[in-house]
Amino acid sequence: MVDYKEIASYIIILAVVLIAAQHLNVIVSGSMEPVFYRGDIVVVEKSDLLGLHEFNPKDVKEGDIVVYKATWYNQPVIHRIVKIVEINGTTMYEIKGDNNNRSDPYYVHVDQIKDRVVTWGGQPIKIPYIGNISLWLRGL
Length: 140
Hints:
Layout: H1 4-21, E1 24-26, E2 41-46, E3 65-69, E4 76-87, E5 90-96, E6 108-109, E7 113-117, E8 119-120, E9 123-124, E10 126-127, H2 132-137
Antiparallel strand pairs: 1-2, 2-7, 2-10, 3-4, 3-7, 4-5, 5-6, 8-9
């Protein structure tokens, strides 16, 4: 006999795990050291998760650490907003890795910002080292 309550509980657990996984990003480089190290996992809030808007990218400010779709790199980039500028009436963001000597090569438009790192007491929420498993499995 099928136990529908048990099946429903498994579906709920799976949904929670899948949603939680969407809020975790693995750091793949040392560009944000000493805030994040390669292999750390950071907790993010999404600008659009299945139509739910956890934050508005237009509300980011200098100092926020964001995940954005770079035009110069084929993977999402996790760096800090260092300056907000107006260019021809459009708000653009200068973004830089804390451990990099210079800013990223191109200004970032608000539409490129996908996630923002969640902070607690002014500090980013991270889980050290656990992401190394993912890096190893992905050959990075």
